[in-house]
Here is the input.
Amino acid sequence: MKVVSFLPAATKMIYDMGLQDYLYGVTFECPQEAADQPKIVRCILEGKNYSSIEIDRIFSASKAQGKSLYWVDDALLESIAPDIVFTQDICEVCNIDTVCTETAVMKLSKQPTLVPLSPNNLQDVFECAITIARALGKEEVAFNYLARLQQKTDQILDQLRANKSPLKRVMLMEWIEPVYNCGHWIPFQIAAAGGVDMLSNPAGDSIVTPWEKIVKYNPEVLVIAPCGFDQKRSLEEMSLLTTRAGWNELEAVKNNEVYIADFDMFTQPSVGTLVAGIEALACMFHPEVFKADGLIAKKFVKFNTSILV
Here is the structure.
């Protein structure tokens, strides 16, 4: 059986579950484990260092014109002749969508099975792992994978209860300019880590959020994790936030509780990366209970607000 993944999260879960021998092609933005795999999906933003504002404008213009940011190497896909193609229909910016995938697949001599993975909440992401494994005839592998990760989230919940940790008033930003709140599974991650984001949109799309609304909400903890940005990339654009009126009055800023985090713990929804995100968030919200170490410690950094206040 030959599998092609048009979705980085699916690729990550395939590797996490040890099913990579079935994989014959991926996208340009799939995780490091798949670096040697043929790249079938490409993007017009690939290799460019556009700012948040520029990326937002490019996407808005492309959507208005009915165009996609992504394209498929048809010849490569034809040569692989996959049996299964994993795709998604959640976000037209993050990954190629099912409509574009269907258009590419229609041209193939051999028609593969399309398996769309479009989770809305955290439980849906867990079920996506089962869908992937089931498509490969390896359903039991997914159950073992999920059981290991469920143990980690259960331990966090036990610790929060044992320490009677209060819920922290949080905001997680999915984009800097314009500011987007967080949606889909991320609010559930926040809840699992001992926080609540009342500006979020659970199980729905993230949306542009007025700065005045954020100032009024006044989060205790602010987490900045723009989709597609690592810490270094986000730090380059922090001035877009720190120069806004009311920034210095935010409780998170006054108490030095602003964090920059790698996007792949939140907007690349494999179960493993999202559980890593919950672990990281717990360390940000309740550092008196949870200490970051190993890989988790490298996935976020506290932004030094004291030099700006």
Notes: The first strand starts at residue 3 and ends at 5. The mean pLDDT is 90. The two ends are 58 Å apart (CA to CA).
